[in-house]
Amino acid sequence: MALFRTIMNTITGRSSEPQSSGGMDADKIPEDLQKLELVEPGLARKVWDYISGAGDATVLSTLSQKGGALNGGGYVAQNQPSPYIARRLAFADPAMPTDALVRYVQVLTAARQGNLSSLREVPATDATRPELRVFLAELKSAHDIARAKCKDTPLPERTNDQLMEIVTGLGGTAEDLFDIVFYKDTHYGSGKGLELRNRMDLPALVRAEPEAFLAQNGRLPIPGRVRLFEFVTSDDLFDTPPFDKMVIDGLGDGAK
Question: Which of 36, 41, 112, 120 has fewest C-beta within 10 Å?
Fold first, then answer.
């Protein structure tokens, strides 16, 4: 049985019998969304209908006004039961339909009501869409959870094309993705976005999107630009156009 189906059965509380639509049961509201009933009766059903493709996007406006304790991208203790753990492992599985994942992330972002303060694991510049930060925070957490809890069952891998389909679905670009992955500033603990390289083929993605990578030299703070230089040299891109010119013309001076 696909890992996604197993996890979605956990989220929805169903049996493990095969389901259509990637294992999503439109009749059973996931446990993490059930908390929305405390915000407004019937809201959980409306939100799950939207995620499942049967509702409309007006619920996002409701969530942005009323909020909801969905902890999108926030801290989760790995040693305690949590409905967020199952959701995050589902997000990490490429079997989850992209359109449903995008709508789920939109829901989580709207429920944050613009408060991104708890997304400390994935800092970024203000130019980056909050939806993308929420998704990548969930993805990073899934990797950490799997490493601690699922050592015998590693997370399945997404291709870079699959990842970029999600990024663009959330209104982002490769430039935004690199912003989060390579971001680093002077605050303690910043820069953990580079751990996301475990969830993508980062060298191949950089080679496929060189202009988006080069743009980070004018977008990131100096510690992040130093990280670009370190990446270029450690992944044997130093002598490869156009990365060699970036190092010579800009990054080397900016990193001093």
Answer: 41
